[in-house]
């Protein structure tokens, strides 16, 4: 059984909004269900709320799961719409390089995985460089320089231990 440990993620950085969305959605769904079951009349039209709440909870849950995870078998990069899982043997190195934002190079550095086949994967972990203007970073995680550097060093150490 693989045990994934989040080394950087939305919850770890103090962003409570995704968790608040999950909590709000769950509370609303519970309230609506109780009203439907205990109410004086049942309206089939009220069931329209369930697909919407299902979508709400799915998106909120994915937002809360964004992050970088490690296990003895590899590294997992979770984003809103996609999850990449890479075995340690396929990772050549971890580097810090400018992140890609909306198809172009961003001002902030991100942690990248360089794979042995020559391809690269960007993680959602960005260096929160003081003084830079805020840009759209697709729900990415901005970390202070000391935390960012510590995570990068930890990843490199884990990779070196497997070499």
UniProtKB/TrEMBL annotation:
Q: Which residues cross the membrane?
A: 21-42, 48-70
Name of the protein = PH domain-containing protein
To which species is this protein native? Catenuloplanes nepalensis
Q: Which UniProt keywords apply?
A: Membrane, Transmembrane, Transmembrane helix
């Amino acid at each position: 059984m693989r045990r994934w440990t989040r080394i950087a993620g939305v919850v770890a950085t103090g962003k409570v909004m995704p968790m608040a969305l999950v909590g709000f959605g769950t509370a609303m769904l519970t309230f609506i269900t109780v009203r439907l079951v205990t109410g004086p009349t049942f309206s089939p039209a009220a069931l329209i709320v369930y697909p919407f709440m299902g979508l709400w909870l799915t998106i909120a849950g994915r937002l809360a799961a964004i992050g970088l995870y490690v296990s003895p078998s590899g590294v997992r990069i979770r984003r809103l719409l996609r999850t990449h899982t890479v075995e340690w043997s396929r990772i050549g190195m971890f580097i810090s390089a400018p992140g890609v934002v909306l198809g172009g190079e961003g001002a902030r550095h991100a942690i990248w995985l360089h794979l042995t086949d020559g391809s690269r994967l960007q993680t959602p972990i960005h260096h929160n460089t003081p003084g830079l203007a805020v840009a759209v970073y697709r729900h990415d995680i901005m970390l202070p320089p000391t935390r960012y550097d510590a995570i990068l060093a930890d990843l490199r150490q884990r990779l070196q231990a497997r070499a």
